[in-house]
């Protein structure tokens, strides 16, 4: 079982997307960045401030129905205190999606007033939608437009392959492919993205990933693990900050595998199958509502 470290994930198409984002910014009035409500920090692109520049920006904390409500409220308060616009949404259930356009118009109120004063009444608001892979960007767009009513068209000045989606209420969305960044300097960020599926599983050690996840759950949501898998969380290996590896997580993974009957020849526990199960059940929401990151103080 090897450690996930120094993940490098910047394929050519993602480098291209970054260039496209910068070249197409002049066509839009604002940028909407979709993040995963369970990992708002790790699912934010650290280059976004540089890429977006002075354009107004709205952060959507998507998949909020899968996140811990208490923690999501803390994040919304954090953004408010830092004078950033944010909204918690869930595209599957439609939660708060109806609040998006009113908030967008509030953010752009000065621009809209200026357009009206120039006789440009009804001028469409054009926004760019950005977000890392697997954050629910397409689901959000389809929720807004309605998959049967979304109008996709070519537009002069937009690089070939990009799509404008026109909504009924004078909103035009420029859909950009999911983009990650050149390097995860913080190992934890790479792990968080791997937990949620933003990084492809085939470049990850799933057993290590599940062990790290179980250790986080033991610290923050012990009852969720205990109740979901009907395992004991007592008498675990003693560790400290100097301990290398994830012995506690591996012991929990073994207990999950044993309880689920994941055995191979000789009665050995199939930890690989147990690992895949744990991560899949987190991603599908079967463990309950949980968040993996708290906002930083200050």
Description of the structure:
- The protein is an alpha/beta fold and 298 residues long.
- It contains eleven helices and seven strands.
- The protein has helices at residues 12-24, 48-52, 69-81, 100-107, 109-117, 137-145, 187-196, 206-220, 222-229, 247-260, 271-283; strands spanning 30-36, 57-62, 85-88, 125-131, 151-153, 163-166, 171-175.
- Strands 3-2-1-4-7-6-5 form a seven-stranded mixed β-sheet, sandwiched between helices.
- Strand 1 (30-36), helix 2 (48-52) and strand 2 form a beta-alpha-beta unit.
- Helix 8 (206-220) packs across helix 10.
- The two termini are 37 Å apart.
Q: What is the strand content?
A: 5-15%
Largest sheet features: 7 strands, mixed
State the helical fraction. Answer: 25-40%
Q: What is the string of SSEs from the N terminus onward?
A: HEHEHEHHEHEEEHHHHH
Distance between the termini: 37 Å
Instruction: Output the strand order for the largest sheet.
Output: 3-2-1-4-7-6-5
Please state the overall shape, judged from the principal axes of the Cα atoms: elongated
* Total of DSSP H or I helical runs spanning 4+ residues: 11
Radius of gyration from the alpha-carbon trace, in angstroms: 22 Å
Q: How many extended strands? A: 7
Which blocks of ≥5 consecutive residues have pLDDT under 50?
148-161
Look at the structure and give the mean pLDDT. 84
Structural class label:
alpha/beta
């Amino acid at each position: 079982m090897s450690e996930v470290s120094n993940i490098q994930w910047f394929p050519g198409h993602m480098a291209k997307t970054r260039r496209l984002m910068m070249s197409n910014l002049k066509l839009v009035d604002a940028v909407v960045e979709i993040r995963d409500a369970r990992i708002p920090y790790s699912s934010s692109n650290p280059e976004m401030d540089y890429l977006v520049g002075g354009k107004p920006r709205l952060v959507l904390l998507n998949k909020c129905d899968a996140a811990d409500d208490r923690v999501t409220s803390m994040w919304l308060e954090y953004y408010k205190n830092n004078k950033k616009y944010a909204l918690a949404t869930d595209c599957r259930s439609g939660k708060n999606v109806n609040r998006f356009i009113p908030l967008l118009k509030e953010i752009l109120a000065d621009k809209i007033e200026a357009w009206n004063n120039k006789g440009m009444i009804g001028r469409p608001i054009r926004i760019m939608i950005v977000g890392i892979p697997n954050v629910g960007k397409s689901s959000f767009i389809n929720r807004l437009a309605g998959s049967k009513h979304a109008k996709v068209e070519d537009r002069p000045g937009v690089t070939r392959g990009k799509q404008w989606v026109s909504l009924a209420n004078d909103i035009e969305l420029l859909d950009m492919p999911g983009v990650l960044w050149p390097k995860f300097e913080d190992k934890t960020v790479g792990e968080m993205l791997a937990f949620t599926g933003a990084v492809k599983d085939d470049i990850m050690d799933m057993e290590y990933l599940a062990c790290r996840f179980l250790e986080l759950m033991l610290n923050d949501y012990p009852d969720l693990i205990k109740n979901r898998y009907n395992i004991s969380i007592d008498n675990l290996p003693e560790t400290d900050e100097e301990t290398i590896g994830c012995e506690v997580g591996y012991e929990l993974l073994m207990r999950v595998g044993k309880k689920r009957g994941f055995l191979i020849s000789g009665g050995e526990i199939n930890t690989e199958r147990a690992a895949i199960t744990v991560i899949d059940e987190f991603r599908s929401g079967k463990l309950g509502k949980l968040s993996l990151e708290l906002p930083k103080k200050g």
